[in-house]
Amino acid sequence: MPTTQPSIIYGPSAPLPASISFGSLLSHHSKNTPDSYAVISHHQNVFLTYSQLDQRSTSLAAAFSAYGVGRGDTVAIMLGSRTEYLEAFFACAKLGASLVLLNFAFVFEEIVATLTPIAPKILITTPAFGKYNYQNILSNLIDRLPSLKALVLIDPWKIKSQALSRKMVSFEDLIVQNSKADIKVEVSPNDIVNVQFTSGSTGAPKAAALSHYNIMNCGQYITAQMGITRNDRVCLPVPLFHSFGLIIGICTSIWSGSTNVLPSETFNAGAVLECIEKYHCTGIYGVTTMFIEEMKHPNFTQTDRSSLKFGIMAGSAMPPDLLEKVTTSFPVPRLYTNWGMTELSSITTMTHHTDPLLKRLRTAGRLFPNFIGKICVPNTGKVLPWGSKGEIVISGYGVMGGGYLHNPSKTAEAMRKHKEDIESPGVGAVDNKGNLRTWMHTGDEGYLDEDGYFVITGRIKDIVIRGGENISPVEIEESLSSHEAIVQASVIGVPDERLGEELAAFIELANDEIKPTDDQLRQWVQKSLSRFKAPRYFWWIGGSQGGVPREWPKTASGKLRKPDLREVGKCLISQSPKREPKQARL
To answer: Does the bond joining 331 to the residue before it have cis omega, within 30 degrees of 0?
Structure first.
């Protein structure tokens, strides 16, 4: 490709995006394949057919409606991987409401901070599961979230007190009490159906609002790319509060009429292997660390994995040697890699199993249908020549239909109209409605290779991706800087063989203060943030550690230069003795 050609690329024009709601799609499967399984939850021993999912979600929708949930309202959920997650999603879909996904590792203050501006009418959770115990915060959540009409509990019997407190109701009771109810609500494909929190450069999580149209079509194009049919069973060990779980997992299976298999509430490599053999799974999804843990498991070699045909690896850095090993040794004959982001309804580019090996190992694939991509000078609409590195900018069906909820400034910063398009040849300056096209500025850096494959080279934004978890350094920096012994903190991602990236903090000690230990600092961070946000490494600016700068690296204008710190971090990691890996917390 000549370097004079601008970095503008179009995905295929067919098939066209679908314009239906998830309630209508579920009704279709319920009528045509009523006895096919929509989901098998291994740890719950629950087998839910499409007909049962349709009926139960209708009953739940009627219950939500009785609490005032209607079109445009929100329902929040904080659970592990369970069938109730799907029931709640479709209940909201049938009402024109949206399901707000919460990371089950959130602590009390994080829950309150993220939900207060969203003002959900219902929160669905459980008193406890696994290592997570919410019993002591349930009543406080009701007090701190005045918008709540009900706190709906899975397994309410786990509460030590026999009687449910005010506003607390049983999930299963709501379904049983409304088993004969019906719902007649006009729902538009453009209604918001899903809200997911995504870390931003400001540190405050932003609520990406996605429509039926957005995520339905992501499911359509993933299905087509991978050749998924209603006879497939996909093992889905990734958490459902991620776009990976809800969109790439559930929405794709609902489009294709296939079955999702949930091995456990949180990731368990042994349960994944057990499910592959027991249910003859034909597909498996996961982030890199999950595949690593599964292949290391003592039951791996004795597990019958011959039913597997395809899989998706995503969510963090994917070393080519690992991709090749999973393809040949797991084996997953058709292993697909991809690139995307929550704000684009998850996957935007994807490899194909017929692509040359080097393309599958070294690129993120080609653009999905009905997307347009550009490589631009960062934070502008100025298109760079083909093959140049720049910011990946995307337009098309997947751009979040509702922007960032209650955050117009961040929405305007990320979603822009480019006046440069009008003068630029080869750019579809207007959309199919005649409006100047809206572009999503991804903050990711990459380029187009000679064949139009996307090569992702880094992130313009400072987000750290640890084991598939997007983490904002800013909120960790704020937590560390609030410690009386710390003057300034800067958090970066450093390479890690298992997790893709690990968190490292450069910190400066305040005068006359006693230096806290690494464990004390981790405990400090964990008081206000989830455990996975506590850095693994701490390096003191001006201290005695070899290789650590005496002073903060800064630009001429006095701004901190994080790229310099990342280079220092890489050197420090390369000099550190190898540590025995621990079980990943995902």
So the answer is: yes
CB count, 10 Å around CB of 203?
A: 15
pLDDT score at 467: 86
| Sequence-ordered alpha helix ranges (H) in 196-244 | 212-226, 243
CB atoms near residue 307 (< 10 Å): 15
Handedness of CA 550, 556, 558, 563 (dihedral sign): negative
Assign domain 22-266 to its CATH architecture: 3-Layer(aba) Sandwich (3.40)
CATH superfamily of 464-575: ANL, C-terminal domain (3.30.300.30)
Burial 323-339 (b: 16+ CB within 10 A, else e): beebbeebebebbbbbb
Opening angle at CA 468, ends 333 and 338, nearest 5: 45
In degrees and rounded to multiples of 5, residue 232 shows phi and psi of -85, 150
Task: Tell me which long-range contacts 304-308 makes (C-beta under 8 A, separation of at least 24).
Answer: 304/276, 304/277, 305/273, 305/276, 305/277, 305/330, 305/331, 307/276, 307/277, 307/280, 307/281, 307/282, 308/276, 308/281, 308/282, 308/283, 308/284, 308/332, 308/333
What's the DSSP call for residue 582? P
Helices (H), 227-263: 243, 252-256
Q: Write out the H or E segment, with its range, that includes residue 194.
A: strand 192-198
Contact call for residues 300 and 294 (beta carbons, < 8 A): yes
> Are β-strands 500-509 and 346-350 bridged in parallel, bridged antiparallel, or unpaired?
unpaired
Give the chain's mean pLDDT: 90
Count of residues making up the chain: 586
Q: What share of the chain is helix, strand, coil (3-state, %, to 5)?
A: 30, 25, 45
List, by residue range, all CATH 3.40.50.980 domains of the chain: 22-266
Residues with Cβ within 8 Å of residue 137, at least 6 apart in sequence:
108, 111
CA distances 98 to 77, 94, 383, 585, Å, are 11, 10, 36, 28
Distance CA 93, CA 91 (A): 5
What is the Cα Rg of the chain in Å? Answer: 24
Among the residue ranges 42-46, 228-232, 347-351, 435-439, the one predicted with the least confidence is: 435-439
CATH of 8-15+370-459, one of 3.40.50.9100, 3.30.565.10, 2.30.38.10, 3.50.50.60: 2.30.38.10
The residues that bridge with 494 in the sheet, in sequence order, are 502
More confident: 324 or 352: 352
pLDDT band at 512 (very low <50, low <70, confident <90, very high): confident
Query: Positive or negative CA dihedral for 98, 102, 104, 108?
Result: negative
Task: Please state, in angstroms and rounded to a whole number, the distance separating the CA atoms of residues 554 and 457.
Answer: 24
Burial class (CB in 10 A: 0-12, 13-18, 19+), 31: exposed
End-to-end CA distance of the chain: 41
pLDDT of residue 132: 93
pTM: 0.84
